[in-house]
Amino acid sequence: MVLLFGTNFQETRLVKVHDRSLQFPVRHARQSKANFFDAQRALESFYGIGPSVSQRLMARFHIHPQARLGALANKQVLDLSAELSGMTLENDLRRRLHDNIRRLRDMGTYRGRRHAMGLPVRGQNTRSQIRTAQHLNRVERRG
Question: Can you give the pTM of this predicted structure?
């Protein structure tokens, strides 16, 4: 809410949204959902971007923390997409992670053997409480 001349206005009413259907066809297809998601949650949906990185990106491009995807300007969308294209995300990041684990296993290091056996890798206690570590390590052992 923004207070102007003694009256409260919602921020979405103050932002003028242009029709971007010709420039962004994917965005146009999801336009009905775009107004419901805030930009920070949308950035965090990418594998490899967490809360701190998304907050840093939004501060860098002057995006309000509660801004909706549909309310972003063309320049902000283009700047964000250019920045995201330069980062290692999604499948590339997963591939790098699995390659690192495979390298550790092939070298026969202690950490590699623990990954191969599905045991805790980072020094957790295995005498009594091992279930959570086995569950979390199971995903990384593929490949």
Answer: 0.62
